[in-house]
């Protein structure tokens, strides 16, 4: 069976009526079987001609823009359309009709979403701590790991045939909380944070699953991997399961059945053979998850790890939302939060407050849409701020304003730090987009206009300039970072409380 359809195939199928599709066994199989690899599930019995679409959403992180797009899709289907928060930190939308699918898939791509490889014998959504990055008690930020796992599994959203034909579906979780919000023990593979000889990494649990005939908790593999080997170890486990797993009675094809057949040491040996160095360290006794931890309730208002900020846990009864609910969730995320929503495996949603530097960020229209603007502002303001936040922790709100030209629609003179667009020369003498930097603007009863601090800074060289300003004028603290294989981990994330 082919993995997935080419665009031309899907477009052709979308033009056929349901009567034409059902008249041919081949096309009937297409919509009832093959489309599942694209994350489309025909609800033949209860919603004939309509589909459920399942997204990929590593760590349950989504944006207000993505949420609005999904809301706009289901709104078009009236009472037939709705969405669910799933038990794998994911969105599913319902009521989708086949003629609309090519346009919907393009819309998903435009907002950075995909439904690829979310069904059938594929890897389900990688789950992690829903409070990653904002949890005052977190062990490690799970988002970099779940993102890398998702990229591995789907080849960065392009489709990865290596993992599209497993013996059965397969689940993975990365734990970053003492509360085990990630439900690791019911996953086929779970990463449990642990130190070993001064190095941070994970002990591995394997084999957890539910089925009508059998339910099992995951068991220790007696293996520890450093943080840098999360994707390599996931790939090795998947390949062992793919190559050796039983392909017969579908009630006996989950990975635990293979573990039973080989024994835990036999299975471990097969995984070890598939590791890059054909080596797998034994597990570490230095677990970072506190065993006597009393599980917290994330619903309601709670302090974030960022001083002065809070996150809000929202209860979503049974995880079901309508289009208007989703629009309102997106609005709340923008008005009161960071524009981000976190889905949980218990079908709820968490809104986090913006960081001190993000919450005070202002930008004019910029050259994308304004003929007066000298430089692009909005996307650049976000990118520069995100890069700065990777380098320093800001303990109090800092108002940063961007304006594309001297008309100063972005009001840079009243900002703590202001950036006014200009053309300047870089270190090679080339004319490039830049900014004049203003500093010291104040609002309120002691209002004061900011003054020119530095003239003609190339935009590409701006991040270290802003970092220095935040450290020297606003008390920001440099972050100690490790960067390796695109994983960025803060040292203090995995220290014991």
UniProtKB/TrEMBL annotation:
UniProt keyword Iron-sulfur, yes or no: yes
Domain Nitrite/sulphite reductase 4Fe-4S: 120-278, 360-470
E.C. numbers: 1.7.7.1
Keyword Iron-sulfur attached: yes
Residues in Nitrite/Sulfite reductase ferredoxin-like domain copies: 44-110, 302-353
Gene Ontology MF: a single term: heme binding
Pathway assignment: Nitrogen metabolism; nitrate reduction (assimilation)
Top-level taxon of the source organism: Eukaryota
One record GO biological process: nitrate assimilation
Regions annotated as coiled coil: none
Keywords annotated in UniProt: 4Fe-4S, Heme, Iron, Iron-sulfur, Metal-binding, Nitrate assimilation, Oxidoreductase
InterPro entries: NIR_SIR_4Fe-4S (IPR051329), NiRdtase/SiRdtase_haem-b_fer (IPR005117), Nit/Sulf_reduc_fer-like_dom_sf (IPR036136), NO2/SO3_Rdtase_4Fe4S_dom (IPR006067), NO2/SO3_Rdtase_4Fe4S_sf (IPR045854), NO2/SO3_Rdtase_FeS/sirohaem_BS (IPR006066)
SUPFAM superfamilies: Nitrite and sulphite reductase 4Fe-4S domain-like, Nitrite/Sulfite reductase N-terminal domain-like
Signal peptide: none
Top enzyme category: oxidoreductase
Gene3D superfamilies found in the cross-reference section: 3.90.480.20, Sulfite Reductase Hemoprotein, domain 1
Cofactor(s) this protein requires: siroheme; [4Fe-4S] cluster
Catalytic activities: 6 oxidized [2Fe-2S]-[ferredoxin] + NH4(+) + 2 H2O = nitrite + 6 reduced [2Fe-2S]-[ferredoxin] + 8 H(+)
Family, similarity comment: Belongs to the nitrite and sulfite reductase 4Fe-4S domain family.
PANTHER family per UniProt: FERREDOXIN--NITRITE REDUCTASE, CHLOROPLASTIC
Name the record gives this protein: Ferredoxin--nitrite reductase, chloroplastic
Lineage: Eukaryota, Viridiplantae, Streptophyta, Embryophyta, Tracheophyta
